[in-house]
Amino acid sequence: MKKNKSHIHWYPGHIAKAERQLKEQLKLIDVVIEVRDARIPLSSAYNNIKKLLGDKPRFLLLNKSDLVKLDEISLWIKYLAKEAGCKVLLSDGKNSFNFNKIIDTAVELAEPKIQVLMSKGLLRRPARVMICGMPNVGKSSIINRLTRSSKTKTGAKAGVTRQQQWVRINPKLELLDTPGIIPTRQDDQMAASRLAMVNSVSENAYTAEFVARELLEILDKKYPEDVREYYKLNTVPTLENIAISRNWIKSAAEPDIERTASYVLKSFRDGDIGKFILDVLPE
Predict the structure, then answer these.
(1) pTM value?
(2) Secondary structure of residue 175 in the 3-state scheme
(3) Are strands 58-63 and 88-90 parallel, antiparallel or unpaired?
(4) Are 104 and 172 in contact (CB under 8 A)?
(5) Closest to 128 (Cα-Cα) out of 54, 59, 30, 53
(6) Does residue 40 or residue 100 have the better pLDDT?
(7) What does the DSSP assignment read for 34-81?
């Protein structure tokens, strides 16, 4: 199927399947850790998360925080804590990892549920936690870091497939080692574009040229000095201007737009251009 150059597509069947799987997982856990990409704190959110979780306790983990500026993300933490009504923590999944704080927060949020169970005569058990979020926000890397110190699998719980295993992080916490995939939707094309910019959307769903052009527009509006300095330009950083400045020219003296678009997306995703947040902080 030919890609629409100005539209990003998802498939309803995949959305429905992801939602069913997530609902089955939610029946078994006490606390949800919702992971978002720190570069797009709003666009990587699932708008129906509260409806999906009901009264299930959750907190936000802004991952890949090493790719954003600390002073800027601090403002987002204050906003999101108020807007989402829950705690907000940072992680980069690689280096400075809030290992203990993540565990302590999860255990704290699960304690009321544990107390209810104990009041019914049941023995205290570890808190059961699941990590969920959009594709490619770093859920698996966080799970790997949390479970690195403990590979003790406690087996499948009733009501789930045998592939879903629980890992005992410590005596107080068990983690479902299968990340919950929040179903993405195509209602908001601006958010869809930003998800594509950070590589959270399959490359089959968009053209690199369209997404790269959108990305350059955002970066030149929010961070013009950083972007123009990186590309060594004293004019608007378009794909054409970047291609010409690097002498990426095809036959007939045409700039190589395809090569340039891939280069722009990669240099942004790797953090080479600079540390940026694409979303606009609401007033």
Answers:
(1) 0.87
(2) strand
(3) parallel
(4) no
(5) 30
(6) 40
(7) EEEETTSTTTTS-TTHHHHHTT--EEEEEE-GGGS-HHHHHHHHHHHH
